[in-house]
Amino acid sequence: MPNPIQLAHSPDADDIFMYYAIKFGWVNTKGLKFENTGLDIETLNVEALKGTYDVSAISFGMYPLIKEEYALLRTAVSFGEGYGPKLIRRKDKRLKRNFKVALSGQYTTNAMLFRIYYPDARPVYMDFLEIEEAVINGKVDAGVLIHESILDFDESLEVEKEIWDIWVELAGEGLPLPLGGMALRRSLPLNRAIDIENILIDGVKIANERKEELCTKLEEDSLVRISDKMLKKYLDMYASDESVQLSDLQLRALDKLYQIGFEYNLWKCPIKTEDYLIPKEYSALRAK
Fold first, then answer.
1. Is the model's pLDDT at 103 over the cut of 50?
2. What is the DSSP secondary structure assignment for residue 103, as one 8-state letter?
3. 78-80 and 122-125 as β-strands: parallel, antiparallel, unpaired?
4. Which of 274, 108, 271 is nearest to 178 (CA)?
5. Global model pTM greater than 0.90
6. Where are the active-site residues found (predicted)?
7. Which residues contact 114 (CB under 8 A, 6 or more apart)?
8. H/E element, 80
């Protein structure tokens, strides 16, 4: 019996949704056992830099920093299409050039794009659940809301800038905004890596096919922070059929993200996303 696969994901509704079809036994895991851990996305990014977990959710914006140790998976991906994280401030506040801003983590994709667009801003990093209150009480001048926070925030706040709009200005029209995905440790045997990716693909696919049932179960078991219509709205945004497998358009968006990072000296060389995916052709060769 192989050792359990250590799989880490965030406790956010989209990650929970995309994994729990496996947790609930709805997916054939081909004899593999998964042990899951739920941590906030920035903690997962930091742990990925350490190589802690076999499979982990990560922010796409930090992947070039771990590309030698981890392969990108084709599944459980989250992109924005006309929406995404929001830079918010108090309605009575006007931002100076060097405004103090709360970000959800140094390695998140939204922080990458924010720092490129606002190079003179002064970031402080905190748990995303604390950002709204930090803006309301004046601890910071502004903050970038992520996850479910973008759907409902205090009426004293308003949007200063959409990260989506920053993305369009940097990348051009026609590409979705890459936010997060999954990465798998390269030290795993290739045949097991392929099996894991296929299991996770099946998990996201089945989750979408049984969305109503799964949402009800997640709410009844108190596994998500939001419920009812807001949960379904959020999942339609970040955990839909577009999350099952990377499309050609999504690959082009990732390539653009990594090109932008290279042009702004965030990493030493440009990368083409397809070169860092698990090589599927091995399965065909093994079957012959």
1. yes
2. E
3. unpaired
4. 108
5. yes
6. 147
7. 87, 101, 103, 121, 123, 144, 163, 166
8. strand 78-80
Is there a contact between 134 and 191 (Cβ–Cβ < 8 Å)? Answer: no
**Closest residue by Cα to residue 76 from 199, 221, 189, 194:** 199
* pLDDT at residue 281, rounded to an integer: 64
CA distances from 222 to 63, 121, 128, 226, 227 (A): 31, 38, 20, 9, 9
- Which pLDDT belongs to residue 233? 77
Structure tokens of 204? 């996201």
In the chain, the domains with their CATH numbers are 5-79+178-287 (3.40.190.10), 86-171 (3.40.190.10)
Q: Could you give the CA distance from residue 190 to residue 74 in angstroms, rounded to a whole number? A: 15
Residues forming the active site: 147
DSSP output for 69-115: TEEEPSSS-EEESS---EEEEETT----TT-EEEES-TTSHHHHHHH
Amino acid of residue 60: F
CA distance linking residue 201 with residue 18, whole number of Å? 9
Amino acid (one-letter) located at 229: K
- Output the six-digit token pair for 137: 């009480």
Mean pLDDT value across residues 95-102: 97
In this prediction, residue 228 has a pLDDT band, given cuts at 50, 70 and 90, of: low
- pLDDT of 285: 46
